[in-house]
Write a structure and sequence with these properties.
The chain is of the alpha/beta class.
């Protein structure tokens, strides 16, 4: 796979559907972590821990496991209620094992017509572990897509790797399987095409900056600071979107932003964003489908 370097200054204006200035994606990351792994090495769970001292993978780490499980048992339902009351959709990523082990969460998203993005088989198994074993990586992707279709009731259209740790072969495999977009790249405020042997895939950029892991766990922000950060990101992209459409992604993990003392910042941001015209609460697949049809009016030659 490869993508072209086309700086923002050399692109034509991006015109979102219905004159929108900003496509706003609010991402619930629906992730499953195994309690143990078959290794005596340190256990990497694909995200920050609440107790930082790592245990061997074959020793159950109940504090960290149950802290994360809080999001599946309580946090996600608090977030769903907030989004229902706001009348705003979420775009959800899901590990295959979430569909197998925590089906109620996936069903709740599906019943609301929210987007579900294939997000690897289990959060604790990074595809970069198989950089030198592309057939095993391919098998993991195919099994993830099989479980996705069985659980969600339709084929997946997009992909996000655990911890965004993909290989070049990842994009080739999802294109071969008919998926039309990936979220593994964080290098833009607009979509662009990635070229593969099986045809183009749209990059719909993710963000680890505008993300509760970074906001709360890595930078230790308060709710007021979190809201100010979201507002500043939104305001600037909305302003720029008057000339050429922009995209804003907010990464939300139910065990982090779903904590009672944190949800105020998210609730206030939803109310703020709803007060603007020209904001498209978009599904990634809607963006990807539209961009495949319209990319030449933005970045031609793909």
């Amino acid at each position: 796979m490869h993508y072209d370097y086309v700086p923002l200054s050399q692109r034509k204006p991006l015109r979102w559907p219905n004159g929108a200035r900003l496509a706003l994606i609010l991402t619930f990351n629906l992730e499953f972590w195994d309690l143990t792994k078959d290794t005596a090495g340190p256990y990497y769970a694909g995200g920050p821990a609440i107790l930082p001292d790592p245990l061997p993978g074959n020793v159950p780490d109940y504090p960290n496991f149950t802290w994360r499980e809080y999001g599946q048992r309580v946090g996600i339902w608090r977030l769903i209620d907030i989004f229902d009351r706001a009348g705003v959709p979420a775009s959800c990523t899901m590990n295959a094992k979430m569909g197998l082990e925590r089906r109620a969460v996936i069903d709740a998203a599906n019943e609301r017509g929210w987007e579900l993005v294939a997000h690897n088989y289990v959060q604790t198994d990074l595809l970069t572990n198989y950089f030198d074993d592309p057939e095993t990586e391919r098998g993991i992707i195919l099994e993830t897509l099989r479980v996705y279709e069985e659980t969600v009731g339709r084929p997946a259209k997009g992909w996000l790797s655990s911890s965004l740790r993909c290989n070049a072969s990842t994009v080739e495999t999802i294109a071969e399987q008919g998926l039309i977009y990936t979220n593994d790249f964080m290098n833009d405020d607009q979509p662009y095409l990635i070229h593969t042997a099986s045809g183009p895939v749209v990059s719909v950029p993710y963000s680890n900056e505008v993300n509760d892991f970074t906001i709360y766990l890595r930078r230790g922000m308060t709710n007021d600071q979190a809201f100010a950060m979201l507002k500043d990101q939104f305001d600037e992209l909305y302003r720029e979107g008057g000339d050429s459409g922009r995209l804003m992604n907010v990464g939300i993990h139910p065990h982090v932003w779903g904590q009672p003392f944190r949800v105020r910042a998210l609730r206030e941001f939803l109310d703020y964003a709803k007060g603007f015209e020209g904001v498209w609460f978009a599904k990634r697949e809607e963006i990807a489908e539209w961009y495949l049809d319209n990319h030449e009016s933005h970045i031609g030659g793909g």
